[in-house]
Amino acid sequence: MVNTIEILKKTEEKLKDRFAKIDEIAFINQKKVLNAFIELKVSTQCFLGTTGYGYDDVGRDTLAKVYAKVFGGEKAIVSPILTCGTHAISTVLFGLLRPGDLMLSITGKPYDTLHESLFGKDNGSLENFGVKYRQIELKEDGSYNEQEIFKLVKKLKPTIVYLQRSRGYSSRKALSPCEMKPIFDNIKKLSKDSLIVVDNCYGEFVDDIEPTDVGADVVVGSLIKNPGGGLAPTGGYIVGTEKAIDKISTRYTNPSLKLEVGSFEMGYRLFYQGLFTAPHTVAQALKGTALVGQIMEDKGYKVIPSNSEKPQDIVKSVVFNNADELIKFVQTVQKVSPVDGYVLPMPWDMPGYSDKVIMAAGTFVGGSSIELSCDSPIRVPYIAYFQGGLTYEHIKAFAEKLIELY
Q: Cβ contacts of residue 347 below 8 Å, gap of 6+?
């Protein structure tokens, strides 16, 4: 009989130094968030909701200022009106791009759910409106193709240079802000008016700096991922320069209203509280993905990033030999979920995806991927994208099941 407790103890001992580094980064980020709350005078009044137009909504406006401060921007949009990360990113792109403009993605094709916004036929996509698109693939080792990037930026002067920090449904590693800095510096030298936009989903608070700290003009993400701390019930955020946010705000509402309207009767306490707890929650998730990654690596499976590398998002990819192994892994996540733990997930035709997708997400907030969750398209290579976990102990319970299962 397998002694799971002993295996878990030995695995945690291997990860002692990694866990200490995660705690160190969490402390830096916690102070960053705390200082923003204090400096911007967050009070119980900020938790109250509004109705109708939402004029002079103190909670909404202060929350945006807190996000701008935490993420190193001049201005922000933070709202439940932004329904998800894909909606927030599309709002940015449609706000900044005009007919004839060029969007250059330097990390290959963006996440699956954005494809219809970019290339959809007769659906009001950017392509329909005459926006041009080019992309440059990352190198095989996951690094930037610097030569090609700088050549095209210099020649084409793109309106937007777009970067996706996390991997989406690819086999690459997530990208770090430190790796972004020399790329961003050179882009600005070659085309000073190009706006650098970063899809920051899954990467917030993983490092002690954010893409805006190294030259990004706009960062964008979802509140049911890292920055919502597992408490925000919905929403998205956009942080950037004042000039960029002012342009985006005309698409967020309309050119005459911009950020003056937008009510939310439910109130904002969970958005503030979620952001406050987010550095700790992200640390819990990172420790859990490190534990799961080490167990699977010790069992002979390839994990991305490897456990010897510092992660740059909360996702741990596990590469399986076949679809059955992949499905079994995802179903095990569901079995240890506090919500709908009795449900057996199966691959299905999920909106916005070209392949069948299996998704385990027994979460308190529907689809929240800062909570323990896992999803994957059913295609070669068979990669499970495991992420989240509100508490390390919950992920440890899942790890215990893996030891028994494989």
A: 327, 356, 357, 358, 378
